[in-house]
Automatic annotation (TrEMBL):
<comment type="function">
    <text>Methyltransferase required for the conversion of demethylmenaquinol (DMKH2) to menaquinol (MKH2).</text>
</comment>
<dbReference type="GO" id="GO:0032259">
    <property type="term" value="P:methylation"/>
</dbReference>
<comment type="pathway">
    <text>Quinol/quinone metabolism; menaquinone biosynthesis; menaquinol from 1,4-dihydroxy-2-naphthoate: step 2/2.</text>
</comment>
<feature type="binding site">
    <location>
        <begin position="102"/>
        <end position="103"/>
    </location>
    <ligand>
        <name>S-adenosyl-L-methionine</name>
    </ligand>
</feature>
<dbReference type="InterPro" id="IPR004033">
    <property type="entry name" value="UbiE/COQ5_MeTrFase"/>
</dbReference>
<comment type="similarity">
    <text>Belongs to the class I-like SAM-binding methyltransferase superfamily. MenG/UbiE family.</text>
</comment>
<dbReference type="InterPro" id="IPR023576">
    <property type="entry name" value="UbiE/COQ5_MeTrFase_CS"/>
</dbReference>
<feature type="binding site">
    <location>
        <position position="62"/>
    </location>
    <ligand>
        <name>S-adenosyl-L-methionine</name>
    </ligand>
</feature>
<feature type="binding site">
    <location>
        <position position="119"/>
    </location>
    <ligand>
        <name>S-adenosyl-L-methionine</name>
    </ligand>
</feature>
<protein>
    <recommendedName>
        <fullName>Demethylmenaquinone methyltransferase</fullName>
        <ecNumber>2.1.1.163</ecNumber>
    </recommendedName>
</protein>
<dbReference type="GO" id="GO:0043770">
    <property type="term" value="F:demethylmenaquinone methyltransferase activity"/>
</dbReference>
<dbReference type="Pfam" id="PF01209">
    <property type="entry name" value="Ubie_methyltran"/>
</dbReference>
<feature type="binding site">
    <location>
        <position position="80"/>
    </location>
    <ligand>
        <name>S-adenosyl-L-methionine</name>
    </ligand>
</feature>
<keyword id="KW-0808">Transferase</keyword>
<keyword id="KW-0949">S-adenosyl-L-methionine</keyword>
<dbReference type="InterPro" id="IPR029063">
    <property type="entry name" value="SAM-dependent_MTases_sf"/>
</dbReference>
<keyword id="KW-0489">Methyltransferase</keyword>
Length: 230
């Protein structure tokens, strides 16, 4: 799969991530020019996981995003539908309860988690609205969701430069460092097709989340959205 649209076939996306699992985190660090570490720290602060809480980390991949929640004392479940990613994560962090699951049909009971989070994964779910509803279903009343996703830079010159980077500079960089550079062509195109910050906030509200808000990171290249279960 080398071309992107928002009509994603789950088995194709899963296969794509299976192929990049071994070098996924390294590749992301290179292609984001080191920004992924800053974004992960911002997510950890927004989730604010506490001892004794239950946190579901969707699209967790190799579990890199899950570790900070677990180290805070929260029981953390890394969940992904790429078995290749989960195997790599289990190899690195054998103590974590990696779980295979589809974000649109989560294998968990209602009202289980204090917090649900997904970083750079909602864009790859074939039915975004179903996933937002499923996240709400498994979240306890008063619990929270934190979504970290690529978005739309708010400053026009940055938006132009960023689009140029995505479509011109990222593919050759991916070819140099990734085990499956075609996957990053797909990712670049899916970023361009993704809704902007207000549009995603409306979709959260339509799914039933309350007190929805967002804040921009790196000028809006990435946005953090948060909401609460009623």
């Amino acid at each position: 799969m080398t071309r992107a649209s928002l009509d994603k076939q789950p088995h194709e996306v899963a296969a794509m991530f299976d192929k990049v699992a071994a070098r996924y985190d390294l590749t992301n660090d290179v292609l984001s020019l080191g920004q992924t570490r800053l974004w992960r720290r911002a997510v950890a602060r927004a989730v604010d996981a506490r001892p004794g809480e239950r946190v579901l980390d969707l699209a967790a991949g190799t579990g890199t995003s899950s570790v900070p929640f677990a180290l805070s004392g929260a029981y953390t479940v890394p969940c992904d539908f790429s078995l290749g990613m989960l195997r790599e994560g289990k190899r690195r962090e054998p103590w974590m309860p990696f779980t295979a699951g589809d974000a649109t049909r989560l294998p968990f009971a209602d009202d289980v988690f204090d917090a649900v989070t997904i970083s750079f994964g909602l864009r790859n779910v074939h039915d975004t609205d179903a996933a937002l509803r499923e996240m709400l279903r498994v979240t306890k009343p008063g619990g929270r969701v934190v979504i970290c996703e690529f978005s739309h830079p708010v400053w026009a010159p940055l938006r132009t430069a960023y689009t140029e980077y995505l479509m011109q500079a990222l593919p050759p960089l991916a070819t140099a460092v990734s085990s499956n550079p075609d996957a990053y062509v797909y990712l670049a195109e899916s970023i361009r097709a993704w809704p902007d910050q207000p549009a995603l906030a409306r979709r959260l509200q339509d799914a039933g989340w309350t007190r929805v808000a967002w804040r921009n990171l790196t000028g809006g290249i990435v946005a953090l959205h948060r909401g609460f279960a009623a």
